[in-house]
Amino acid sequence: MGARRKNKNKPTRKHARKQLHKQFLEPEKLPFIAHVLELRKRFFYIAIFVALFGGLAATMQGPLTSFLLKPAGNQQFIYTSPGGGFDFVFRLSLYTGIALSIPVIVYNLLVYLQPLLRKETLRFVIGISLWSSLLASMGILYGYFVGMPPGLHFLLQSFSSEQIKALIGIDKYLSFVLTYLLGSALLFQIPLVLILINRIKPLQPKKLMGYQRWVILAAFSIGAIISPSPDLRNQAIMSGPIILMYEISIIIIWALNRKNRRPKRVVELLRKDAEIQAGRLANFEKAQAMWQQTIRNTVSPVASSATSKQQYLPASSRTDRPRQYLEKFSRRPSRSFMG
After folding, report:
1. Which of 26, 117, 132, 255 is deepest in the core (most CB within 10 A)?
2. How confident is the model at residue 15 (pLDDT cuts 50, 70, 90)?
3. For residues 147 and 229, what is the distance between their CA atoms, to the nearest angstrom?
4. 3-state class of 168 per DSSP?
C-alpha cells in the first residue's frame, strides 16, 4: 500500500509533458515591472554604444570639424562665450555618436517589441527599417555634397559688402547643418511613406499621377525654403529629388498593386456573389413589408368594429376593463374573511 501511495504522488509522464509544454511552448505572462526592467536594459545598451561612439568621435575632432566646415568654403566662424568651443566639440561628438548608434537603437527597439509582432509584421518592419536607413543615407549625402554648398554660398556671400561681414557662431552653423541634413534625409522618405499608406489603404496610380502638379508646386516651395536662392538651378537641386522620389513611389505602388491584384475570374465571381446577396436582401425586405401590411389589414377591421360597438352602447353597460381590474385588485378584504 505504501508503494502504491508513493507511485501516486510521483508525477506521471503526461503531467511532465504538460509542464514542459507550458514552460517552453506557451507564452509566459510577465508582470509590468518585468517590462519596465527590460526597457531599462535596452536603454542602458543604447547609452553604452552612444557613449562609445561619442568618445571615438571626440578623439577624431579635427577631421570631423574640417568635414563639417567644408561646405562653407573659406568662411570663418566664431564662438561668443568661454565655453563655446567645448560646447561645440561636445555637441559634435554627441550627435556623431547618436548617428552611428542608429542601427543599435533600431535593433534594441525591435527586440523589445518582438513579442507583440507577428513574423510577417516583424519582417516588414525590418525591411522598412533597412530601406529607410538606405534612403536617409542617400538624402544626407545628397544634401551635404549637392544641396548645401550652393545654399551656403548664397546665404554667406550674397549679402556681404565692405561694411557688412558675416560673423557666424559655430553653434549656429552646427544647428543649421544638422537641420539641413535632417530635412534632406526626411525628403528621401517619400516612397516609404506612400508605401505604408498603400499597405493600409490601396492607392490608385492614376490619382497619384493627377496630383503631380501640386507635388511640383510643393517641391519648389520646399526647395525655396531650404535653399533660399533666386537662382532656379539652386532651387531645382532640392526640388528635383522630391519630384523624382514621388515618381519612383508611383512606379513602386503600381508594381505592388499589380502583383497583389486578384485575377479577373475571382473578381467576376465576387461581383456575382455581391449581386446575389443584394437580390436576396431586396426580396427579404419586400416579403417583410408584405407581411406587415397583411397584419395591419387583419387587425384594423376587428379594432374598428369593437370601437363602434362601444360607442352605441349605453354608458351603464360599457365595460371599462382597466378600471375593473384596478377595483378587483385594490379591494380591501372583508371582515368575515379576516376572522
Report:
1. 132
2. low
3. 11
4. strand
Rounded to the nearest 10°, the torsion over CA 171, 172, 174, 178 is 140
Give mean pLDDT, residues 232-237. 76
Residues with Cβ within 8 Å of 235's Cβ and at least 6 positions away in sequence, in order, are: 220, 223, 224, 227, 229
How far apart are alpha carbons 180 and 238 in whole angstroms? 11
**Residues with Cβ within 8 Å of residue 85, at least 6 apart in sequence:** 79, 170
The residues near 186 (Cβ < 8 Å, ≥ 6 apart) are: 139
- pTM higher than 0.70, yes or no? no
Residues with Cβ within 8 Å of 113's Cβ and at least 6 positions away in sequence, in order, are none
- Exposed/middle/buried for residue 52 (C-beta within 10 Å: 0-12, 13-18, 19+): middle
* Burial (CB count <10 Å: 0-12, 13-18, 19+), residue 236: middle
For residue range 145-200, list pLDDT tens digits in order: 988 888 888 888 777 777 788 888 999 999 989 988 988 898 899 888 888 888 88
**53, HSE (Cβ side, Cα atoms, 13 Å):** 20
Which cell goes with 122?
516583424
3-state secondary structure of 77: strand
Whole-angstrom distance, CA of residue 217 vs CA of residue 230: 16
Coil/strand/helix, residue 78: strand
The 10s digit of each residue's pLDDT in 294-316 is: 888 776 555 555 555 555 445 54
CA distance 174 to 181: 11
C-alpha grid cell for residue 28?
509566459
